[in-house]
Amino acid sequence: MTREEILHDPELAPYVRRYFFERLTAGLMDRGEALAMARRLDIDLEAGGYAVALFTLPPPPRAAADYLSDPAAAVRSGLMAHFLKYAEYVSIPWEATVSAVLIKGNEGDMPSLIRRCVNEVRDQYAAASLADWHIAVSAPVRRLEDLPRCWEEASRLWAMRYIHPEQHVFLPARAVDTAGGEEAAPENTTETDGQAETGGALDRALAYGQEHISDPDLSLGGAAAHAGVTAGYLSALFRRELDTTFTAWVTARRMERARELLAETDLPVGQAAREAGFRDARYFSTLFRKTQGCTPTQFRERNYNV
Length: 306
Fold this sequence. Notes:
It is a single chain. Helix 7 packs across helix 8 (220-227), helix 10 crosses helix 11 (269-275) and helix 10 packs across helix 13. The protein has 13 helices and five strands. It is α+β, with helices and mostly antiparallel strands. A five-stranded mixed sheet has the order 2-3-1-4-5. It has two domains: 3-191, 2-Layer Sandwich (Alpha-Beta Plaits); 249-303, Arc Repressor Mutant, subunit A (Orthogonal Bundle). Strand 4, helix 6 (147-159) and strand 5 form a beta-alpha-beta unit.
């Protein structure tokens, strides 16, 4: 199957859109690449303003026979039809119970487009008498290149539903008026610029990683969830801000901890490796020799301070 056939296969369209959106919001495409791929997907990305929304999408019933009697069916079809009807909304299937929407339009129209998006989700759930729903929307930006900031902000606000489950709409403080409701922003949401938001997510991920460095199950996904961003975006942050990968950063921190344990304790090498977060002592010894230029035992002989 050629690239063009994949891009235009109706059955693969949801997966291709998600792949495109993931790369776009992770900052892995420049403007030219993004516009070129968008044209292949019949998506018009030219606009004066952009925002990202995440909202609850009811899962389909397990049995096909229950579909017509399922009150959530109208919500699913209604929301999908609404966002397909307007060129200002690009819907992207995300997870079984979460959908994403790229909102785009003239800069001056963004507040009304965001308001319409929020109201549509609210109205569809109200019509079906369903109360378990949430929506998070980023503040608008002017440039396509700033979409990673939108995604980070929407993801961070989306995570607030666990802290304030009774609240349905989450917007940044500077965009409260766009939703026209008092519940629009969490109480602890404050206005920050893009640099501060990016730094905040990275700082949260670094703090989480340092705190759990001895846990062999520490993962990019876990750090991203703690920071309120996607794994793809956090990976892009590590590369852009620290010029490294999450895995390389974790390995370096674990190696630092291992050196401390070897120099300051009399723990056996294998136990020191496990205390530092390495699951396999043999792998640790091989990696230690490769990165430190000596074996763990030789390092201890030269640096033991107890």
